[in-house]
């Protein structure tokens, strides 16, 4: 089955800096890669996703890149703000019925002002 | 907005008890999922269901079972609760690939 590795486990940055979180996956059949953000005491929420036919996707200050050959994908947050502080999870799956997301172990991002 | 409702926010149960965790979604989603979340281990898939009465094992199904008799409801059952099942349990539902999570049930087994 799919296995997703996520690094680093913790990341501390100054407000305004960029943050990068990296994930690798094992199943070459996976073709959907979302990122979820979980603020303290709240439920995980989807912030951005990418499918395997796309190499990069941006949404304001966040972007995700995918390298299918190397089986890794990354989340990039620019101009970080204190409200970006949260736990971020990457995940991978196939886009077909009968499959489920497999998540990485999470990265705790702390943005200090 | 899709609502995924988990019946209890906090539960305390005794070792050996049979425990039912309930999850209900209101948007007619085909797919429903149970994960447990532990510090440093992320979200681990226990079971999921892509249709009524259908179920699939996830990565850590041991000690758990599930029931999906109606499309909107997906129940997680701990047959005989043990202390290593103390955790946060998250339910999710989806139609396509975008998951909506419930608020979670923090279960403590004593």
Q: Which SSEs are present, and which pair or pack?
A:
The complex is a heterodimer of chains A (113) and B (110).
Chain A: E1 4-7, E2 10-14, E3 19-25, E4 32-38, E5 45-51, E6 56-59, E7 62-67, E8 72-77, E9 86-92, E10 102-103, E11 107-112
Parallel strand pairs in A: 2-11
Antiparallel strand pairs in A: 1-3, 3-8, 4-5, 4-9, 6-7, 7-8, 9-10, 9-11
Chain B: E1 4-6, E2 10-13, E3 19-25, E4 31-38, E5 42-49, E6 56-57, E7 64-70, E8 73-78, E9 87-94, E10 100-101, E11 105-109
Describe what you observe in this structure.
The complex is a heterodimer of chains A (113) and B (110). Helices cover 0% and strands 54% of the residues of chain A. Chain A contains no helices and 11 strands. In chain A, strands 2, 4, 5, 9, 10 and 11 form a 6-stranded mixed beta sheet that branches. In chain A, strands 1-3-8-7-6 form a 5-stranded antiparallel beta sheet, with no helix packed on it. Chain B has 110 residues and is mostly beta strands. Chain B has no helices and 11 strands. In chain B, the strands form 2 sheets. In chain B, strands 2, 4, 5, 6, 9, 10 and 11 form a 7-stranded mixed beta sheet that branches. In chain B, a hairpin with a 5-residue loop joins β9 (87-94) and β10. Chain B is globular. Chain A binds chain B through residues 1, 6, 9, 32, 34, 36, 42-46, 49, 89, 93, 95, 97-98, 100-106, and chain B through 30-31, 33, 35, 40-45, 48, 50, 56, 58-59, 90, 96-99, 101-104.
**Total helical elements of chain A:** 0
Tell me the fraction of residues in β-strands of chain A, as a range. Answer: over 45%
Number of strands of chain B: 11
Overall pLDDT confidence of chain A: 95
How far apart are the termini of chain B?
Answer: 36 Å
Estimated radius of gyration of chain A:
14 Å
Q: How many DSSP helices of chain B?
A: 0
């Amino acid at each position: 089955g799919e296995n997703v590795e996520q690094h680093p486990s913790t990341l501390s940055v100054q407000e305004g800096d960029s943050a990068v979180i990296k994930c690798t996956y094992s199943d070459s059949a996976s073709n959907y890669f979302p990122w979820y953000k979980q603020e303290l005491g709240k439920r995980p929420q989807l912030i951005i996703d990418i499918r395997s036919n796309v190499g990069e996707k941006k949404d304001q200050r966040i972007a995700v890149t995918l390298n299918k050959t190397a089986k890794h994908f990354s989340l990039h947050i620019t101009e970080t703000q204190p409200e970006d502080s949260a736990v971020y999870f990457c995940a991978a799956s196939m886009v077909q019925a009968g499959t489920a997301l497999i998540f990485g172990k999470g990265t705790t991002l702390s943005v200090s002002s | 907005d899709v609502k995924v409702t988990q019946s209890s926010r906090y539960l305390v149960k005794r070792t050996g008890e049979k425990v039912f965790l309930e999850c209900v979604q209101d948007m007619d989603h085909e797919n429903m999922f149970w994960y447990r979340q532990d510090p440093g281990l992320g979200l681990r898939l226990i079971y999921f269901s892509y249709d009524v009465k259908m179920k699939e094992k996830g990565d850590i199904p041991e000690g758990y079972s599930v029931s999906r008799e109606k499309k909107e409801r997906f129940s997680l059952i701990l047959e005989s609760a043990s202390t290593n099942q103390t955790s946060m349990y998250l339910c999710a539902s989806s139609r396509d690939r975008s998951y909506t999570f419930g608020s979670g049930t923090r279960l403590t087994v004593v």
